[in-house]
């Protein structure tokens, strides 16, 4: 049985990776261009006038956040668009009729989302090297935080796609929830710059924890204790996984 | 062994529509079974429940002894589904469609490639293996769905209108293919609106209407219930007023005669009378398919 599941998972992940690499002009190139513009405008042009933040140049400070931002949006949108397209074209039925347990379906789609998130993250990291001399403070924290974040947002994209009824439904969350939360998650500023009240409010935003742990991996500075951040991220992963598992098992949005 | 055993199956959709009202159905291993019914009768709902695409409201479904409620994975492994609508990824190549599907059933890639070559060759699609599936013709897409459903070698193949919109030549080659599959031991359940297809292929038949099975019997027994058959005779032009004793008939025009023949009635008498009156017959055919006549009668009765 485990070999059956392994083959099913491999087939699904491979299919997902083939999907976004086949349309690389739509999936891999745009984030590279967008982030390059961020580096040039916010990092070079405006950043040079801002000075230091948390003891680092502004460019050094925002690079981890921008990398994380691209990982978040790409992991999310990959799974949301892929799963919803499968629903829309009915080819999700290929999976529903097959002896594939729910956890394999989730792992397969999340695997695809993580793969795209990490590839885009790597591309953006490479591009950032043209603008800043990146140092790695703690590789383990860096890898674990980017991986968990990518998993978390892939799960978010999956839930969005399961519930979506139209293509509009899969763009509402990224546009009206994800983007504001990312911008307010400390990509461009340190939370310590905010008044106490807004610092407290910011801690409701899960993206704050992800950006802080990732930034710690590069720079060794964080606004929130690492253990607290990791606990929050893992908690959200468990929560979203459980929700996705429950919804797909019950056939919500998939079976009549 | 029973390939499929359905007991007390009901399905009520959210809007309150009762699609199935407690059906019982049994298909033996090795059977070629026709599940017929008018549009909206409950055929696709039944197939959807068997293949786990529709949640049942109540009842029990067993596939080769595996209960859908408690042994879902084992039950799914036995089934190959060819749905009514094209539901493969239109952006994948033909080969990717079938190999991916095999992967979901745990078939290793090397083995999947061998099976893909076998089934795509049999269904005359091997030369199209590297083309995007959306570029195939309608008939080719239908065949691709069949090849995909066979990749994990199911014991029960469910075909939901597999020849819809397919030209007659291709339909006949698909019939040959399905008959061969059935001879090789695959149990087949077929829904179709082409009743001559069901009559030609299937040994047993179930007719469903308004969510109720109104007939579940062998094709032979069902056809034996037909009391009257109507034949159309094509004649050499004849404008004389002729009579036929012992037969109900209608003169449609100078070339065409319709005759109702009771079951068990010998046709020689008909031809004798026509010959005596100097009427020459060029050809003769059934007005409607025999099963079609029965089907319409049964569905009308169940209303």
Any overview of this molecule?
The complex is a heterodimer of chains A (256) and B (303). In chain A, helix 3 (29-50) crosses helix 6 (102-128), helix 4 (58-88) runs antiparallel to helix 6 (102-128) and helix 7 runs antiparallel to helix 10. Chain A has helices at residues 2-22, 24-27, 29-50, 58-88, 93-96, 102-128, 139-163, 169-183, 196-202, 206-219, 226-250, and strands spanning 52-53, 56-57. The two termini of chain A are 29 Å apart. Chain A is globular. With 256 residues, chain A is mostly helical. Chain A is built from 11 helices and 2 strands; from the N terminus they run αααββαααααααα. Chain A has a two-stranded antiparallel sheet. The mean pLDDT of chain A is 91. In chain A, a hairpin with a 2-residue loop joins strand 1 (52-53) and strand 2. Chain B has 303 residues and is an alpha/beta fold. Chain B folds into 2 domains: 2-224, P-loop containing nucleotide triphosphate hydrolases (Rossmann fold, 3-Layer(aba) Sandwich); 228-301, Alpha-Beta Plaits, CATH 3.30.70.1560. In chain B, helix 6 (168-183) links the parallel strand 7 and strand 8 (187-191). In chain B, helix 3 (94-104) packs across helix 4 (109-122) and helix 3 runs parallel beside helix 5. Classes of the chains: A mainly alpha (256), B alpha/beta (303). The A-B interface holds A 3-5, 7-8, 10-12, 14-15, 18-19, 22, 86, 89-91, 93-101, 251, 255-256 and B 13-14, 48, 51-55, 72-74, 76-77, 79, 81, 83, 85, 87-92, 96, 99-109, 148.
């Amino acid at each position: 049985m485990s070999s059956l599941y392994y083959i099913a998972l491999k087939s699904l992940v491979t299919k997902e990776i083939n999907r976004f690499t086949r349309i690389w002009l739509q999936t891999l190139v745009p984030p590279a261009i967008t982030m390059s513009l961020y580096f040039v405008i916010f990092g070079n042009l405006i950043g040079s006038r801002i000075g230091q933040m948390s003891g680092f140049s502004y460019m050094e400070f925002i690079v981890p956040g921008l990398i994380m931002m691209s990982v978040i949006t790409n992991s999310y949108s990959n799974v949301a668009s892929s799963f919803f397209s499968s629903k829309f074209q009915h080819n999700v039925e290929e999976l529903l009729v097959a002896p594939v347990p729910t956890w394999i379906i989730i792992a397969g789609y999340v695997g695809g989302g993580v793969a795209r998130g990490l590839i885009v993250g790597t591309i953006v990291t490479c591009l950032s090297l043209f603008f800043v001399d990146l140092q790695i403070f703690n590789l383990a924290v860096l890898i674990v935080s980017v991986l968990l974040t990518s998993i978390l947002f892939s799960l978010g994209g999956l839930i969005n796609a399961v519930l979506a009824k139209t293509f509009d439904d899969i763009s509402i969350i990224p546009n009206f929830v994800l983007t504001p939360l990312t911008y307010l998650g400390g990509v461009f500023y340190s939370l310590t710059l905010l008044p106490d009240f807004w610092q407290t409010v910011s801690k409701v935003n899960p993206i704050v924890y992800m950006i802080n742990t990732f930034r710690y991996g590069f720079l060794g500075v964080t606004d929130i204790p690492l253990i607290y951040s990791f606990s929050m991220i893992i908690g959200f992963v468990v929560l979203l996984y459980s929700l996705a598992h429950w919804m797909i098992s019950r056939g919500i949005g998939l079976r009549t | 062994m029973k390939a499929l055993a359905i007991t007390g199956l009901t399905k009520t959709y959210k809007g309150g529509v009762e699609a199935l009202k407690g059906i019982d159905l049994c298909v033996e291993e090795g059977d070629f079974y026709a599940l017929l019914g008018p549009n909206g009768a409950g055929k696709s709902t039944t197939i959807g429940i068997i293949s786990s695409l529709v949640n049942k409201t109540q009842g029990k479904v067993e596939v080769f002894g595996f209960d859908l409620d408690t042994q879902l994975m084992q039950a799914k492994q036995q089934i190959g589904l060819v749905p009514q609508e094209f539901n493969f990824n239109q952006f994948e190549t033909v080969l990717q469609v079938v190999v991916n599907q095999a992967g979901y059933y745990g078939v290793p890639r090397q083995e999947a490639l061998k099976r893909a070559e076998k089934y795509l060759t049999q269904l005359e699609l091997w030369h199209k293996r590297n083309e995007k599936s959306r570029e195939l013709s309608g008939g080719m897409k239908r065949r691709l769905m069949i090849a995909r459903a066979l990749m994990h070698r199911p014991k029960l193949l469910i075909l939901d209108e597999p020849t819809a919109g397919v030209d007659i030549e291709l339909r006949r080659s698909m019939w040959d293919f399905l008959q061969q599959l059935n001879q090789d031991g695959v149990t087949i359940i077929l829904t179709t609106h082409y009743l001559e297809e069901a009559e030609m292929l299937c040994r047993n038949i179930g007719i469903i209407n308004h969510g109720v099975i109104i007939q579940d019997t062998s094709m032979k027994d069902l056809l034996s219930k037909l009391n009257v058959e109507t034949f159309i005779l094509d004649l050499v032009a004849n404008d004389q007023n002729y009579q036929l004793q012992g037969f109900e008939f209608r003169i449609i025009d100078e070339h065409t005669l319709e005759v109702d023949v009771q079951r068990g009635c010998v046709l020689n008498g008909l031809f004798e009378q026509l010959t005596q009156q100097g009427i020459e017959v060029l050809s003769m055919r059934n007005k409607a398919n025999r099963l079609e006549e029965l089907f319409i009668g049964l569905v009308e009765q169940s209303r």
